[in-house]
Design a protein that fits this description.
alpha+beta, single chain, seven-stranded mixed beta sheet, 6 helices, 13 strands, Jelly Rolls, binds 2-oxoglutaric acid, four-stranded antiparallel beta sheet
Length: 275
């Protein structure tokens, strides 16, 4: 399989827990993706992230195709190995002048897996800058193990339980500025978040959170969508995939997954399980 990340980018990922910016699609193609999101919002009268959450690739075929784009799938393979399964996908939308933010967190804190070395590809669908509230990373924190998260529910916090790492040295934060169509890869244990959108334009990005298929879930849903390679040795049941946007087959799978993902009795913190 051809490599996407250079040796240097791979060493950066291993050292810092993230690498960016990486090229994927053109700004024009990113604008076409935004148009699809806006058309959905016009049709439903609601923000895309209200109902299309948690595993958004099950709702939109174009989003599933984007997850499998050779640049994104290939970079994920370089980061976590040849067999890549997606367990989480969200559209992160912040309107200008709004108060939405993402608290400092480790994605892996909610992944009760036998190993926590998965990675997320985050693609900018609009230009993402410090002004518009781009994602920020604290380098090296993927090596800190599980950090304590407070659950600070807040309507403006885009992470669902308001999970927040309190003790963060923000002076170390690195802004991941990207033009529309570029993406980053981050380790599931790196501490990251983002601030309010103080710019003039909407900031939208999509995350594809993946693990190697060899990873075993110790609790919670053990389903996913294969992005690259093979589903072996068979720890994961594959979702039925949408054949077109808003295919009822994919939407039913999405609803079943959301029910499990947002139910605290079904989804435990990784630190509440045996890991
Ligand atoms: O889009 C953002 O601002 C945060 C994204 C994020 O937390 C993630 O992709 O894990």
């Amino acid at each position: 399989m051809p490599r996407v990340l250079t040796d240097q980018q791979l060493s950066e990922f291993r050292r810092d827990g993230f690498v960016a910016p990486l090229d994927c699609i053109s700004s024009k193609e990113a604008a076409d993706c935004m148009k699809k999101i806006e058309d959905y919002e016009t049709m439903t009268g609601e923000d895309v992230s209200k109902n299309i959450r948690a595993r958004a690739v099950l709702a939109f075929k174009w989003l599933l195709d984007l997850a499998r784009h050779p640049q994104i799938a290939g970079a994920l393979q370089d980061a976590i190995g040849p067999n890549v399964i997606l367990m989480f996908c969200a559209v992160w939308s912040k309107h200008p002048g709004g108060s939405k933010f993402v608290s400092w967190h480790q994605d892996g804190a909610y992944n009760p897996f036998d190993k926590n070395n998965g990675a997320t590809a985050w693609i900018a669908l609009t230009d993402s800058t410090p002004d518009t509230g781009c994602v920020k990373m604290i380098p090296g924190t993927h090596k800190s193990g599980f950090l304590h998260h407070d659950e600070r529910y807040d309507a403006d916090n885009l992470v669902s339980r308001g999970q927040t790492v309190a003790d963060v040295d923000e002076t170390k934060a690195i802004d991941l500025a990207m033009r529309a169509g570029q993406f980053s890869i981050h380790h599931e244990m790196v501490v990251h978040g983002s601030g309010e959108n103080c710019g003039n334009d909407r900031r939208v990005g999509v995350s594809f959170s993946c693990v190697a298929t060899e990873t075993k879930a110790l609790s919670g849903p053990q389903t996913g969508v294969l992005i690259a390679g093979e589903n072996k040795p068979g720890h994961w049941a594959l979702n039925k995939e949408p054949a077109f946007d808003l295919d009822p087959v994919g939407l039913a799978e999405l609803e079943a997954f959301k029910d499990a993902y947002y139910n605290p009795d079904k989804m435990k913190l990784a630190t509440e399980t045996n890991v």
